[in-house]
Amino acid sequence: MKGKLYGIGVGPGDPDLITIKAVNTLKTVGAVISPESSKNKGSVAYEIAKKYLRDDVEIIYLTFPMSYEEDKLKSIWEKNANIIESEINKGKILAFITLGDPTIYSTYSYMLEYLKKRDIEIETIPGITSFCAICSRINTPLASGNETIAIIPVTKESSGFIFNSIKDFDNIVLMKPSANSVLIAEIIESLNLTGNFILAQKIGTKEEKISNKLGDIKNDIPYLSSIIIKKKGFID
Questions:
Q1: E strands along 122-178, which residues?
Q2: What are the residue ranges of CATH 3.30.950.10 in the chain?
Q3: pLDDT reported for residue 158
Q4: What pLDDT does residue 174 have?
Q5: How far apart are CA 69 and CA 137, in angstroms?
């Protein structure tokens, strides 16, 4: 009998910010795929999900290094897809856990390209995104009425794209801003938006920090950070 793969979003950090469907599924699976950026580094997603897992669940750690080398990434994704397919062919019910929502810049979403080509049953369960959690935390809507939203992944090479997006949209979500935080601070300052942003670090965890100080963006910020810019400002 063939198994099945669930892609499960476990939310931004707070173990209570996870859907009932995700919890019910995690309680039944026999194995969990826990992605990590380097071997033995651990997984934030696993720390969120572990309270909902069976005592006898098998943990399969797969390494997905942070790299912009496309050939290297493709090789790793193909290798990990082979491992997942092999486990499913053994009849295992697997859960691939990922932070936030599995369809937004997640490791799982990149793996789907390789897994959907195979004879595998897949079900994706959505999760709460970091930027929705941030806006809920500060009691401010992400967007209202006819306002526009841009969700931008920050890279070291995306300065022009970031500038134009901030200039053209009403509400901007900057994902992974640690990749180029000093540039973001400079753009915010140049567009006179120093009073219109929120920097949130490790939202929903014990290390959560929310700031509207430009200097905090210029400092080293953790990978699990997001910046939200609202042209019309935040609700006090």
A1: 122-125, 149-153, 171-175
A2: 130-230
A3: 74
A4: 96
A5: 36
Q: Can you name the residues that pair with 36 across neighbouring β-strands? A: 63
Sorted by sequence, the CB contacts under 8 Å of residue 235 that are 6+ apart come out as: 139, 140, 141
User: Architecture of domain 130-230 in CATH?
Assistant: 2-Layer Sandwich (3.30)
Q: Taking a C-beta distance cutoff of 8 angstroms, is the pair 43, 14 a contact? A: no
- Bridge pairing between strands 171-175 and 225-230: antiparallel
pLDDT at 156: 78
The values of phi and psi at residue 205, to 5°, are: -110, 175
Q: What angle do CA 134, 129, 118 make, to 5 degrees?
A: 165
- Return phi, psi of residue 5, to 5°: -115, 130
Tokens of 141: 């809507």
> What one-character-per-residue DSSP string does 203-220 give?
TTSTT-EEE--HHHHHS-
What are the 10-residue block averages of pLDDT along the chain, 236 residues in total?
Answer: 92 96 97 80 87 96 77 85 94 96 92 90 97 96 96 84 91 94 93 96 94 92 95 85
Q: What is the pTM of this model?
A: 0.91
Distance CA(12)–CA(34), nearest Å, equals: 16
Q: Which pLDDT belongs to residue 220?
A: 86
Count of alpha carbons within 13 angstroms of residue 140, beta-carbon side: 17
CATH 3.40.1010.10 range(s) for the chain read 4-125
Q: Which CATH architecture has domain 4-125?
A: 3-Layer(aba) Sandwich (3.40)
